[in-house]
Structures are given as C-alpha cells and as structure tokens.
Amino acid sequence: LTFESFPTSLIGLANFISNQAKIMGLFQEDRAYLPHLSIARKVKHPLNITQLSHPLRINSFSLYHSQSTNDGVKYTPIKQWTLKS
To answer: What pLDDT, on the 0 to 100 scale, is given for residue 54?
Structure first.
C-alpha cells in the first residue's frame, strides 16, 4: 500500500540510507523510493484491497531482514527508530 501524502523528509532519509549502502558496496535498485507498507509478499492468491479508509500515523520505522524460505518470507527485526513529531 502506498500513501496519498507523506513528509518529504522521508525521501531524504531513504536517499541517505541508499547512498550509505552504495558506499558500503551494497546493491541498490535504480528506481526512486516510494514510501509504502508491504502487507503481503509472494502470495499464492492476490488480495483484493483498493484503499484503507482510516489514516495511519507513523511514529517509528524499523529495519528488517527479509529472508525467503520454503514456508514463505520470514522478517526479522534488526533495529527500530522513533520519529520526531
């Protein structure tokens, strides 16, 4: 799911993290970052969701390690940061 609006500072944060990853030699995709929520990956049957009717207030973000397994994708939290309001 993507957002109708979001703080422009979020794009700056994503660009900073991507640049740091490049400096460390980590592969980065060439497409622009689009803030989103992943609610499902590699599902066997598509979900029928067009939009949420409730606004979301984001007050933190987390770094996860996603690992594909035979049983699906496993997400392991690595670190969480609180956002300033």
So the answer is: 73
